[in-house]
Amino acid sequence: MESKNPVFANGSQWKRDGYATFDVSTPSADQLAGMYGAPSASPAQMGRMTLDDVVVRTASLFAVLLVGAGVAWLGGFGLLPAIGAGLVAMVLGIWAQASRKVRPGVMFAYAALEGVFVGAISSWYSAVYGNGIVPSAVAGTLAAFAAMLAAYKVGVIRATPKFAKVLLIAGLGYLVFGLVNVVLVLAGAGSVYAGGGILAVGLSLFGVVLASLFLVLDFDHIERGIRNGVPQREAWRAGFGLLVTLVWLYLEVLRLLAILRGND
């Protein structure tokens, strides 16, 4: 019986001739030497994710985010449009992360809207706390990124299952705390961070440390993906996760600097 698999049915070696008509010619010694001497296929040639893939995709998403931030900053966007853009970006971010299918278009839309949010918020902080606060926050974010990458590379911090579990629980708790704080502000009770003080500084510093440690999970996710040979398209998801964490870290650093400079 002929195979109904189109791959097999279309190949001459799978035609119904009593036996499969394979080419059984014996390769020569030179041919064998060439086969064994040929270099193995690289991960890129095999369609597997590489570090370069992650870097390129992360950079492209960051470029879109910076464009959105520049538009919001130069356009003088207010806080209301910024909050609206941030909420839509949050929905898109959840969609991009939860979807089984890799969706670069959704990720780029998130980057653009999140850029508008970041640009408008940064402009507001700059107007209230001085022009130097944004460059300081950028420098602090880059310093934290470099420190976490170095600590991860030398093995000072390892993304063990216990570490990941504790960090995820802490992240969930911090998210709930943030939502409660927003509700308090909307209800007119004021922000927990208002007035500064040791509590506000401590909470903000905790947010900076937590976001920085989440970078370790991102590094581990990328390294394991490369080691396990995940498909190249997963580089989009890895780069997107890194982008989200860095934006979160930047906003935490920005708030900490604002609290240290005066009342939030």
From TrEMBL:
Pfam families per the UniProt record, alphabetical: BaxI_1
Domain of life: Bacteria
Residues passing through the membrane, by range: 54-73, 79-96, 108-127, 133-154, 166-187, 193-217, 238-260
Protein name per the record: Bax inhibitor-1/YccA family protein
Annotated PANTHER family: CONSERVED TRANSMEMBRANE PROTEIN-RELATED (PTHR41282:SF1)
InterPro entries for the chain: BaxI_1-like (IPR010539)
Key words of the record: Membrane, Transmembrane, Transmembrane helix
